[in-house]
Write a structure and sequence with these properties.
Elements (H helix, E strand, L loop, with lengths): L7 E7 L6 H9 L6 E7 L6 H9 L5 E5 L8 H11 L4 E6 L3 E2 L3 H8 L7 E9 L16 E4 L4 H6 L9 E4 L16 H10 L5 E12 L5 H6 L3 H20 L5 H13 L3 H10 L4 H12 L1 H16 L1
Parallel strand pairs: 1-2, 1-4, 2-3, 6-9
Antiparallel strand pairs: 4-8, 5-9, 6-8, 7-9
Helix pairs in contact: 1-2, 6-8, 8-10, 9-10, 10-11
């Protein structure tokens, strides 16, 4: 069996994905860059996930299957943290167990990260559903990219420059002092990546689709959009953690303050609004204004919607 040098550690957290994970692992097998390991951390699957994964492990030593250790909490964050701790590569990337990876994903990122001054490479993703029989991959030439610095952190927080969990290759040094918060069951990558970027790491942002995410109601995002209480509460907790971290580093700008307050209204979370105002040292009059608005938001929201539509005319 051919031996490969481990430059990149791919971490795949999985749970009951026997019906989908083979497509994901097949897309990893088809990567044009070959020097990788794929750590598949099983969160306690009750279906045939282990049996499906074994067909890849037995034929390719780069695939490594492990059950989540009791040292780590149940959930994606715990599985990913175990993967980080076990990773042998100089670079780390996370893929979900139901998505498809562009065959030139690893090669593109690895070449661009050969510049030692760069610590990460983010790229775009494109959603698909099961009605699509086959994804047509576009040939990657010289992707347009721009340098992402700490001055761009606000754009990451607001989603203007999205940092999806599976759309970033990281230099392993970025996780030297950081791990995913294992108490979060949604928005854990948003919270974790914001901490990493707040340390001042510089990377690249690509205007290129290198990842295809499957849309279905059983995904974490699908559950959040359907108002799942666990996912929503996790987003609220992640938001408050980000606010506190940014404030501690002097990075909570006036623009981000407005963003978080709006998010508090959207998520119907008084805690977000209160924590944001407290973190920015807002006067009592501002607390009164926003909390009064929060209590009567159900009456004010239709007016805001109408005003927004009028602005777009």
């Amino acid at each position: 069996m051919k031996k490969f040098k481990t430059d990149i550690s791919i971490i795949v957290a999985t749970w009951n994905r026997a019906h989908l994970i083979s497509e994901t692992l097949e897309s990893i097998s088809n990567q044009t860059y070959e020097n990788w390991e794929c750590l598949i951390i099983d969160d306690g699957s009750k279906d045939n996930t282990a049996k499906i994964v074994d067909t890849f492990v037995s034929s390719d030593s780069r695939f490594i299957y492990k059950q989540r250790s009791k040292k780590y909490s149940k959930g994606i964050p715990g599985c990913r943290n175990q993967g980080i701790d076990d990773a042998k590569g100089d670079f780390i990337i996370f893929f979900d167990d139901d998505d498809i990876v562009h065959p030139e994903n690893l090669l593109t990122c690895f070449i661009l990260l050969s510049d030692k001054n760069l610590s990460f490479c983010r790229y775009d993703k494109k959603p698909f559903n099961d009605n699509i029989k086959k994804i047509v991959f576009q040939k990657i030439k010289l992707p347009y990219s721009k340098v992402f610095k700490i001055e761009d952190l606000g754009k990451m927080i607001t989603g203007d420059i999205p940092f999806a969990s599976c759309c970033v290759m990281w230099d392993k040094k970025c996780f030297q002092n950081e791990r995913f918060n294992e108490e979060l069951m949604y928005a854990e990558e948003w919270e974790c990546y914001s901490r990493i970027l707040a340390e001042g790491f510089t990377g690249l942002s690509l205007n290129e689709v290198l990842y295809y995410n499957r849309k279905h109601i059983n995904s974490n995002t699908g559950e959040f959009q359907n108002n799942n209480k666990v996912r929503k509460n996790s987003k609220i907790k992640a938001t408050i953690l980000i606010v506190k971290n940014l404030a501690s580093k002097g990075l909570l700008s006036s623009g981000l303050k407005k963003f978080f307050i709006r998010l508090g209204f959207t998520l119907k979370s008084k805690k977000i609004i209160q924590n944001t105002l407290k973190a920015t040292g807002a006067p009592r009059t501002e607390f009164f204004k926003y909390l009064l608005g929060y209590n009567f938001y159900f009456l004010l929201r239709p007016i805001f919607v109408i005003k927004g539509k009028l602005k777009r005319l």
